[in-house]
Amino acid sequence: MACRALGIDSGISKSTVSRICADIDEAVEEFLTRPLTHTWFPYVYLDATYVDVRRGGGVHNKGGRVISQAVVVATGVSAQGRREILGMAVGDSESTDFWTEFLRNLRERGLKVSTDTDPLGVALVISDAHSGIKAATTAILPGAGWQRCRVHFARNVTQKLGSRHSKPINALISAVFAQTDPQALVAQYKQVTTALRSSCPDVADMLTAAETDLTAFTGMPVEHWQKIWSNNPIERLNREIKRRADVVQVFPDRASVTRLIGAVLAEQHEEWQYGERRYLSEISMRKLAHTLYDPDDGVHDSADAVGVPDVQFMIGA
After folding, report:
1. CB 117 within 8 Å of CB 95
2. Which residues form the domain of 43?
3. One domain for residues 41 and 114
């Protein structure tokens, strides 16, 4: 099926291949351009992977150069606590302009931004420490916070110190995230940073510079912390994309990338909608809505908090 979707030789007639490709392209286009106005998405995960694509060939794009292309993907957790594929795009690199255009397209399709008067929009964007993502988030999703993936940060520490020396340091840093109270977590973070100042000043500097971004998740309900402090959920999706792409090895053109990976994403989206339990519970999503409306008053357990509208219709069944 992958061969047919890509339009490469598969032992069937060219007209049949063309018809199959056209049908897949139509379905993928409809999926990737569908409106996002049916709910709001407090959490958005962004990541990219790379695939090899042939460019500049002759007939049937044979020959030419093989170049690496970025495939960027956005997933979200809806107000109902379910995961959805929000979009994908293929480009030459993960530049700020490319990420900005990608997020702008999501907004144009209805991805709701958070404002002071209506905070029920994108509350937190989770990604690795890519400057293009952070700049694009600031420009296109101005009401959203940015959570730097703690797993990627640990990898950065390993790159700095080497595998053997980084293990005890990363274990010490991990102890910070064992806290279940925002104030206690921040206090522990500062203690670890201070403790590393003399023995590992470079890592202490990294922690100091990253504190706001690594602890952005603490403004959300504690029930959500483990699922929003890293980019692991979308990285697992990207591993599946890579597994499918490795079968192809070199895509004949960009259209074939969108065809195959778009179909994979549509399949995963459907599985999330109908084949798995909620990613985040309805009760915790209700807490999140109240927290966003009144962050200075902590997390409410009741839907009757003063100044907070009834959010039942926003949570759904």
Report:
1. no
2. 1-149+231-297
3. yes
Examine the domain organization and report whether 23 and 121 are in the same domain.
yes
Ordered DSSP codes for 181-232: SHHHHHHHHHHHHHHHHHH-HHHHHHHHHHHHHHTGGGGS-GGGHHHHSSSH
Q: State whether 18 and 125 are in the same domain.
A: yes
Residue of 220, 13, 22 lying closest to 114 (CA atoms): 220
Q: Which residue type is seen at 213?
A: D
Q: Residue 70 corresponds to which tokens in the numbers above?
A: 């970025």
Two structure tokens written together for 83: 């995961």
Dihedral class, residue 44 (left if φ above 0, else alpha if ψ from -120 to 50, else beta): beta
| pLDDT of the chain, 317 residues: tens digit per residue | 455 445 455 567 777 778 888 899 999 999 999 999 999 999 999 999 999 999 876 555 566 799 999 999 999 999 999 999 999 999 998 999 999 999 999 999 999 999 999 999 999 999 999 999 999 999 999 999 999 999 999 999 999 999 999 999 999 999 999 999 999 999 999 999 999 999 999 999 999 999 999 999 999 999 999 999 999 888 889 889 999 999 999 999 999 999 999 999 999 999 998 877 899 999 999 999 999 998 776 544 444 443 445 544 455 54
Q: Give the span between the Cα atoms of 163 and 223, in whole angstroms.
A: 32
Domain count, the chain: 2
Please state whether the predicted TM-score (pTM) of the whole model is above 0.70: yes
At residue 87, the 3 state secondary structure works out as: strand
Q: Please name the helix (run of DSSP H) or strand (run of DSSP E) that holds residue 262, with its range, or none.
A: helix 254-274
Residue 210, C-beta contacts closer than 8 angstroms, at least 6 positions apart: 129, 148, 153
